[in-house]
Amino acid sequence: MITYKAFFDSNLELVGYEGITIVGSLSITTTLSTRFTSIVHNYNISLPDQEDLAIILVAYLTVVVKESLGAWPKAKIVKLAATMIAIYDKIRSIFLITSYKHYDFSPHDLTNWCSSILRYKDTLSESENSLLEVVYYEALKQFGDKLVREEDRLKLDHILGEVFKAQWSSSNLKNVQNYFYVPSPQNSSTENSYLQKLNQEEWSTTVKKGIIQYGREGQDLDVLVNNELLQLTASVSKILSAPEGHTVLVGRAGIGRKSAVKIVSSLQSAHLIIPISGTQPQFNNDLKFAIQTAGFEGEQVYLLLEDHIFNEKLILSLVNILISAGEVANLYNAAEIESMISGLKDEASRENFEGNLMEFFTERVKKRLHVIACIDVDNDNLYDIFENCPAFLHKSMVIWKTEWCIETIRLIPNLLINKANESDAKNEVQPSPNFLKIFETIKEKMGAPARFIAMIKLYIEIFIDKKSAIISKQSKLQAGVDKLNEAGNLVATLKQKAAEQQNKLAEKQAKANTALDMISNTMKNANTHKEEMEVLKHKTEEENKQLMVRKKEIELELAEVEPLIQEARSAVGNIKSEALSEIRSLRAPPDVIRDILEGVLRLMGIQDTSWNSMKTFLAKRGVKEEIRSFDATRITPENRQAVERLMANKSDSFDPKSAKRASVAAAPLAAWVGANVKYAHVVEKIKPLEREQNKLQENLASAEAQLGELSAGLSDVDATVAKLKVQLSAYTKEAAEIEIDLNKARETLMVAEGLVFKLNDEYERWQQQLKDLSLEIEKLPENCSLAAAFITYLSDESEEGRRIILERWVKELAVESFSFEEFLSTEREHLQWQSEGLAYDQLSLQNAIIILKAKVTPLLIDPTSNAINWFKNHLKHRQIETVTQNNPKFNNNLELSVRFGKVLIIEEIEKVSSVLFPLLRNEFVYQGERKLINLNGKLIDYHNDFTMILSSRNEQLKVGADVNAIVSTMNFTVTHAGLTEQLLSCTIRQENPEMENKRKQLLRQREELQEKQYQLQNQLLEDLANSSGDILQNSNLLSSLNETKASSSAISSALEESLQIQKKLQTEYEIYKEISLFGSYLYFACNEFSKFNILYALSVSGFIRLFLTSLQTFQGMESTTESQKRHLFFTVYTYVSRGVLKTDRLTFALHLIQKLYSIPSDQWRHFLGNSVTGRNDPEDVPAWLPKQCVQNVQNLQASLPELYKKLQLEEPSLWKKFMISDSCEKELPPHCKISEFEKVLLVQALRPDRAYSAMSQCVLHTTGLRSIDPPVFDLTQIYKESTSFEPILILTVSGTDPSSEIRDLAPNEFEEVAMGEGQETKALASLEKTAQAGHWLILKNLHLVTSWLSILSQHLQNLKPHENFRLWLITEPNPSFNFVLAQSSLKIVYEAPQGLRNNLLRTFNSWGSRYVDKLQPTPGRIFFVLACVHAILQERRTYIPQGWSRWYEFSDTDLVTCVKLVEDLWQNQSPQVQWKFIYGLCCDAVYGGRIENIDDLGILKTYLRQYLVDEVLSHRWSPLGTKITLPSSSKFQEYVNALKQLPERDLPAFFGLPENIGRAWEKQTSNDVVAKLKTILLRKEVALKFEREFWHKSLAPFMLLWKKLNQGYDFVRMNLPNEEAGKSPIEAFVNEEFYHAINLVQKIHKSFTGLNRICKGSAVPDDCDLTIGNSLINFQVPKCWESLWEGPKDPNRYLRSVITKTANITKLRGLKSEQILQNPLNLSLYLHPSAFLASYKQEYSRLSKIPMDQLDLESSWKAPTHKNHIILSELLVEGGLFEGSVLKPCLPHSESINSAPNCYISWKAKKNERKTTNYVASSLR
């Protein structure tokens, strides 16, 4: 446009322009092409210097302060400007753009800072501090909101505090952070909105009002008002209330960004527009509506844009233009614009706007339309968004808020739990103390507050569910236990009663017998009774006399002491209470009182005789009455004796006079003690008399009774007999009744005992369960917190990742043990899921639980579709819809599913459609009782039963950060254990289907039995719990319980039997377990290889088919496990390797043996060159070793010392034959007893020229393969293997096209589509058509449309093809190829066979006899020559870089082009062949056009001069230096026969290469193989997050190596030297080289210092640190190091080379050029050897005074006679070898690289050039 002053419009018409000057601006970081900058004038507008900046700022502040405060002293304004500039300079110096790209602070920020003061007019007072507070607060908003890290914000606080304190002596300005400056309500809708100052409580009230107001619109805001939300809302409100206020909110989900915008929109009465779709034309419609609302209707409009909107650069460009200019070009057509702006004429007049209506409209849009960009901080394209939309940085305010403070995180759980408890008081939730610890352990991985809140809410739900279930179960169990306890107690009671009844029966029977005996004996004993009566009467009289005598004796004894007792009692009763109180009040009473009271206490039986005890006794209520009424008979002999001793020892104390002197109350008490002692003594004395009296009394009473009885008996014998008869009758009746009751009780007892005995197991189990449930309730908070955290944070983790993190949680939370599966599910559910098709591995079980428990929509990574099939089976009772996003009926199915509560499964997810976002975020709209959701711009009813599942078969699916926060990603990628089980099951199903059916039947039966047992147990508990009254009398209940118990016992027996059968089956399964285990390892090894090339991916279903095929074809062979494994390996390798490029097959094979055949990890690391020894000076190695092997042997010695010891390299005689052998890998010394892989390591170290052969041998010997290449196959065989559901993916290389072979193979009609731009629709239409018709479809060039392949994959998933349909896909390798399509296809490689013979045969076969036979002999020979040249050029690519410097895409199209253009020459029958024309055609157009290197072009020319000559037409001429005879005719078959005489293996002479080129090829190819294997092992993408422990472990060896390399040097502490020119070019070169070397060393050291701090946890990595660290972890040299010096690709060698070269250059510094040049020079010791040669040429030019362009290089292997030369030493030569100073061709056994003698180079003046047209010979070497 600039060059031609014209451009093409949309109709491709050229439109010119005149008189227009195009002015553009760009940031300093923007890169433009030199082609563009060369045609424009470039001007650099630099930033103002300090002086100018101060003048500008003072001018700004003068106006601002005057308008805000009125007059203010000029000096203060200057001082304030200086303050602001000082702060600005410090911010720019500390917060660098190199740390974060948005730290782009410019004077624009400074002017914004100034102008923003105007908005604080209402809050400013005349005080100086008032203005300083505003400046301080605005600095926090202008600069602080941009800062990423908390430590950066603290630095800003420090800067502000330091500067304000130094210049204004203000130290209390930080208090301003406790207030909020927000728009005044009365001015919120005006264009110049002033701010008001609110405290936290006032602003919190305002925000809550905004939430309520927004909720009135039907959209509830479920937010927690915390300090973060208040701060964020205040910042957003302040920005959006200003004209042209835009903001970029960078954070994580849940921070409250969108909520803040919604609240502010409600408070500001603004129209909030949130575009759903980021694609055209939907976004344009939203944009038009926003612009129209702001510009035409004059409303404040908030346009909220989210991450998914920014996926297209076009939209970013539109937003950039909108923010910058207030308009978007071509958004409206002319008629729409005219109709809008015409209605603004009156409005423009009212506002006195100067300008046209379009400008007025644009101005209104700029002021009223506010753009808010919500971008997730983890968005990989964050800074690309900033780069493509500069207005976000320069015209908007960036608010960077990614996390809540710890205090908020600590408060959130309690707030949510308290809120839940208030709404549901019945189910009280107990908080867990573990939330904060869990968050701190996981925040680096997923610190989004939304996830944390989701975890708490899920915790509440799980807690309520589990607690309710436990309490319900507890109540049932407790009721059952209580009933059984009641029955047990009843049994005990019945037993006791039965025993009592039995005793009563025996007693009654005994009494009846006694009565009977008495009747018979009464009459007999009448006379005897009379005699006894007389004796008794006499005896009674005698005892009565004795009794009277004893009574008198006792009365006499008591008569003496009784008066004393009465007197003492009377005296005690007269004691006044005051006297006792007086005694009690004494602190230290006299001994008299103490002794008396001790006597009282001891007599009354009180042993504690301390003063406190005495006071307590005296303080007792009624103590006098207690003493007075004391019964002296209660006095024990011990107490009496103790008091007697006391009275004897302290007789004075008991003297009445002494006692009275001590206290009025003491004397009566002393008398009472004495009287009671005497009375006690008497009582003790008369006790024997009393006992004798009592005995006599008893005897007397007994005798009188007997006398009465005998008298009565004698008086009426008949009456006695009658009475006895009545008693006998009564006893007999009572005994009968008791016996009846006893029998009934025994019957009840038997029933009760039977019930209790039968339910004893249940009783014990229920009791244990009650204990377990009680313990479970105690542990419920910690278990629920772990379960909620697991579901929330670990759903997207691998099985191993989950295990590690869960173990860490369990350890840090001090939990005894926790099983996620057992806590949230039961074995019964596991069995059910397994029967529904769920894999029975731990990962699948966990995922199933997460799907069913989580409230977040699941996104299943399900390559095998097993998870989706299980989910369909699990919810088969519900309506299920399955759809893909590209389905035309997608929106319709979505709406119907939401409306009617269906289960919607969305498959083949590659990118989550923005249409689903409202559903994923639960953005409901409420209209009364209606619950609605906004889908596709319309509100539809939302059914609460609606369930949505997202699914993708792409294992490598990358979910955006914005989506990841609202879905729960679960990887159902098959695990090792899961695949083993699958293979085992499939094997049994194929090999022994009966056993598999039996296993399934058992599984189903076991599930049914467990379900029935569970129901029976519940029924048993229900029956017991619901029973009332005496359960033993409830016959129906007893019958039901017995029946239930019997059924339960039967089921338990059946379950036990089932378990035994299952164990038996498992034993039979073990026969196939080992091969299944090996198969699983083999699959994962193959799958891991796809990291190297996505096209090598293998599906699980495909592998299972291979596995079963292998077992089927193995039948009849010798059945051993090892032979089975070998056969399986052969089958899988053959299948996979035919889809692997030839150059990658050895890599693939080595990868497999490393994974399957137990190669030690240290050996594998050494093989890949990934072992870091940290050694600087390794031990000496044998002197006989070739120099080029020394480093290899040193590394082997350091990393594998045991292997090195076995080799005995110190004995050169043992290794002589090995070192010269052409097949050394087969001819190891006899003493080397090492493994096959150790042989590879040996050859790699000593004979790298045979490394490829050693690797191949290792593979063949280890695996039993016959060849690394698979057996030859053709497309017919592939077609027979294929099915209509499985696409055939043909991987081609440039220049090959299998289309013709497919066309020849096609049995019916077929269609062919060459893919490219615009062919996608045609391809899909052809796919539908051919699939239905059963035809074939060929899609070519898929590598050109990789972004469309996901759509193709989705269509294939929905396709229902005819059985004859076949889909052939042709592509070249492309890393962006769709993973799902690659994995699910049958893959083969289509590439030309290697070798000139095969190449020429393929060429002739592709042209065919129909073409060749028509040619005349001469054209036929020319055709052969062109084919021969073409084959040589192609096959020479085998040797890179020796053959060609790089890979050139010489294709069959090149040959076709040559032949077609040369056809005209041989058709005109000219006798002379125009070789020059053919030469020019090939050299300048066809082949030469692809060549970039001048030396490669020389090789092409040499070949063309060799073959494009008349000699080739002679019958004596033979191609390639062979002796085969070419036919004189042009017969196709004759040429084919002649070509078959060529050797199958190409000789180096065919290409003009040295005879030992094979050695160089082996060395180079083996290095390529190692590099590829290293890529597979260490392929890691640089991520924003890292694992510190892994980094420390991986980087420590590099840091140790660097530390040891620097020992003895001081490079890292040297001051960087100035790049001063020396006196000569050589000296200048040394100075520059030294500067670069030291700069490089210090750059590396700085990198390692930073990495060391990161590994120790004292620093947080930035993007640069992550890049460097990940490069080293992947054993790659960081790009930032290579930008300073490009050296070895291996970081170990790179570091060693840097130190070695720096040390060498340091030695040269300070030397004169003559001193430097006089000694032999080793160019390998310089960083830039080419610069040295250029410097030497410049120095020679100066000394010889010859212009540099007139100098020619002169070199010699012999010392020249003149002295003006330099000597180059340590040179190496490839392709030849020196004998002395003579260069000779290499022999086949020569080393690929050999030492060269010193080379002497100099310069000489150019001679006059001779013009010649003759060819110049050029060596092919």
Features of the shown structure:
1821 residues, 7% strand, five-stranded parallel β-sheet, motor protein, 29 strands, DYNC2H1-like_lid, Histone Acetyltransferase, Chain A, alpha/beta, single chain, 68 helices, Rossmann fold
Any overview of this molecule?
Residues 832-1051 form the Dynein heavy chain ATP-binding dynein motor region domain. Among the domains are: 200-402, Rossmann fold (3-Layer(aba) Sandwich), CATH 3.40.50; 560-709, Histone Acetyltransferase, Chain A (Up-down Bundle), CATH 1.20.920; 1074-1174 and 1189-1289, no CATH class; 1401-1541, Orthogonal Bundle (Helicase, Ruva Protein, domain 3); 1580-1744, no CATH class; 1746-1821, no CATH class. Residues 1174-1178, 1580-1585 and 1809-1821 have low confidence and may be disordered. Helix 49 (1251-1263) crosses helix 61. It has 68 helices and 29 strands. With 1821 residues, it is an alpha/beta fold. The two termini are 49 Å apart. The protein is 58% helix and 7% strand.
Task: Spell out the blueprint of helices and strands.
Elements: E1 6-8, E2 14-16, H1 34-37, H2 50-69, H3 74-94, H4 107-115, H5 128-142, H6 150-168, E3 180-183, E4 195-198, H7 200-215, H8 227-240, E5 247-251, H9 257-267, E6 271-273, H10 282-295, E7 301-305, H11 313-325, H12 334-341, H13 345-350, H14 357-368, E8 369-376, H15 382-388, H16 391-394, E9 397-401, H17 406-423, H18 435-446, H19 449-524, H20 526-573, H21 577-585, H22 591-603, H23 611-618, H24 623-628, H25 637-649, H26 656-662, H27 666-715, H28 717-758, H29 760-793, H30 799-812, H31 820-824, H32 827-835, H33 842-853, E10 857-861, H34 866-874, E11 880-884, H35 890-900, E12 903-907, H36 917-920, E13 924-927, E14 930-935, E15 938-941, E16 947-952, H37 961-964, E17 967-971, H38 976-991, H39 993-1026, H40 1035-1089, H41 1100-1114, H42 1121-1137, H43 1142-1156, H44 1161-1168, H45 1187-1199, H46 1201-1207, H47 1216-1220, H48 1236-1246, H49 1251-1263, H50 1275-1281, E18 1288-1292, H51 1299-1305, E19 1310-1314, H52 1320-1333, E20 1336-1340, H53 1349-1358, E21 1366-1371, H54 1379-1383, E22 1386-1390, H55 1396-1412, H56 1417-1435, H57 1452-1467, H58 1475-1486, ...
Parallel strand pairs: 5-8, 5-9, 6-7, 7-8, 10-16, 10-17, 11-12, 12-16, 18-21, 18-22, 19-20, 20-21
Antiparallel strand pairs: 1-2, 3-4, 13-14, 14-15, 23-29, 24-29, 25-28, 26-27
Family: Belongs to the dynein heavy chain family.
Domain Dynein 2 heavy chain 1 cytoplasmic ATPase lid: 60-153
Pfam family, one: AAA_9
